[in-house]
Design a protein that fits this description.
5 helices, 5 strands, 19% strand
């Protein structure tokens, strides 16, 4: 049953689903990223992404922390819309602390592989 994006139930499902995630390639393979979402419907969320998988909380070793609006996070991670992230960044809606080169390398990596696109569809399927 689909759950609202970033709800506790959704995070549980996304973490279980993460076991099926394809191994990231290029810049995403070793990316450790902290993600803060202040305006999630059930309160602020602090997440991390390591090797393409979501985790709860922030990671001390992450070189980069991004603060992203809820709707932009959903467009990026669920809808697979990298243009939403670029537009939000240019409009000052995304704040980056730390090593921005990691994000830039990921941005230039190109589109998703067929395996990544299939996995993204699975994320979309668990999201209300």
């Amino acid at each position: 049953m689909p759950n609202p994006f970033l709800s506790d139930a959704w995070l549980d499902d996304a973490q279980k689903l993460g076991e099926e995630a394809p191994t990231p390639t290029g810049a995403a393979a070793d990316l450790v990223l902290n993600i803060k979402i202040q305006d999630a419907p059930d309160g602020p969320k602090e997440l991390n992404m390591q090797a393409g998988k979501f985790g709860r909380g922030l990671v001390d070793s992450a070189p980069t922390t991004v603060t992203i609006p809820y709707d932009v996070a959903k467009a990026m991670f669920i809808d697979g819309n990298p243009q939403a992230a670029m537009q939000a960044f240019m409009a000052g809606q995304i704040k980056v602390e730390g090593d921005m080169t990691k994000l830039m390398a990921m941005q230039s990596a190109g589109g998703p592989t067929p395996e990544q696109a299939a996995f993204q569809q699975k994320l979309k399927d668990i999201t209300a």
